[in-house]
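Aim 2 progress update. The chain analyzed this quarter is reproduced below.
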Amino acid sequence: MVSLVALFTLGGSPTALASNEEPVDRPPVTVSEFIPDQTNLSDCVGLVEKPGCGSEARGGAGQTAVFIALVLGLGLVIWRISVGVRANRAR
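Predicted structure tokens:
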């Protein structure tokens, strides 16, 4: 039981601890679905997205749902403020 706790706290696997080989350092994966494959990235740098620099993975139903939730939340806050102001003025 103690060896299992030690194994998990060290972060190793049984095969990694048993072998004497050095771990292979691999570069991090930098592939992103938002970066175009066939376009020079220096052509896409700027404040406004240029044609051909976007991705089909952007936007969609999730982004629309977040926008609608933000607008509804802002409307609720404005409504509650107006109700409070009207109640305060009525006194």
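The helical segments are 2-10, 14-18, 61-90. The chain has a mean pLDDT of 77. These observations will guide the mutagenesis experiments scheduled for the next reporting period.
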